[in-house]
Amino acid sequence: MALSVSSAKFSSGVEDDKKKDEFGFPKFVVMGHRGFGMNILQSPDEKMKSIKENSILSFNVAADFPIDFVEFDVQVTRDGCPVIFHDIFMFTQEKGVITEKRVTEMPLHEFLSYGPQKDGANVKPMFRKTKDGRIFEWKVVKDDPLCTLQDAFVKVKRSVGFNIELKFDDNTVYGEEKLRQTLDNILKVVNEHAESRPIIFSSFHPDAALLIRNMQISYPVFFLTNGGSEIYKDVRRNSFDEAIKICKEGGLQGIVSEVKAILRTPNAVQRVKDSKLSLISYGQLNNAVEVLYLQYLMGVEGVIVDMVMEISEAIASISVRNKEDDEEDDGRKSMIMFGEERTKTSVAESNFGRRIKKPSAEKQLLNSKIVYKE
User: Fold this and answer.
1) pLDDT for 112-128, tens place per residue?
2) Angle at 183 between CA 154 and CA 86, to 5 degrees
3) Cβ pair 282, 204 in contact under 8 A
4) Across the chain, what does the average pLDDT equal?
5) Is 42 helix (H, G, I), strand (E, B) or coil?
6) Whole-angstrom distance between the N-terminal and C-terminal Cα of the chain?
7) DSSP secondary structure letter of residue 285
8) Alpha carbons 30 and 294: distance in angstroms, whole number
9) CA distance readout (Å), 371 to 196, 227, 263, 294, 305
């Protein structure tokens, strides 16, 4: 049974500022990254190539597990149709030559012509380019056709909410008119098909996040940040403090942060809470169960994960028992039991970056080169 999540839609008749303050997840939420998990085609781990990411199949397989949302990326085609696809460019092979085309410059029928078709054909095989420039054929165990946002609303099980990431090119400057037109097309589909499905919007693009909050007040808006792990020309994207500032000034409801940024600066969690904002995280470290529990104890409200089956089952098998420890003055302790072995780990909620008592958790964090700072 999935974790209980109230509809992520605000009630009417409430002042705007009060709406922002009232939003919050009722319990720790789990979201499937691009459905059942992102595809890493160069990975030796077959789990990262099991089901086509951002597909109806991926969303519905994820919905069979006890998760609350699926997260996916939305762009708008040249003729105004919101489609679900992560990469800015589409790659294929024509006569032995790799070609590329920007997704937003295609009409819908051309976008849908890539990859497997409903009749079983695959005339335009898909390829993916990695950050280091390597190109891999997009081969997965279970493939599925590309889809539109409307397809997702109609075909995906209603047991899961949607975390709709508004996808824009980091290297393109967008004027307000272009942003507004893109968001208008997305909101039209959402308003026509969302019904009672929980919805949140998120975006790395500061102006897009602020604008969609201005254009609608029905659904929460989260600002995505990597907390300074990468540096961008737009300084608003480069730190937790800037993310908090954007949310407070624009009336956004929360932040989605790269998990490493949270673990490196754990005091940022309290700053987010003091600002009356929600906080969830993303990143490959979220595929380690211990890291999820550390965040839970810190006060992070949810996680976006790739290993949907493993993580959801691990969370379903845990129990958390709080107790006062009179022998140390570290405050409240939590005894966490998880997995078949029901292993116990004690983590002090204050100063917890230094008091991990479970070796496997400590090893995981050290291997990830996470440095805790006061």
Assistant:
1) 999 999 998 999 999 99
2) 65
3) no
4) 84
5) coil
6) 38
7) G
8) 15
9) 42, 14, 8, 14, 22
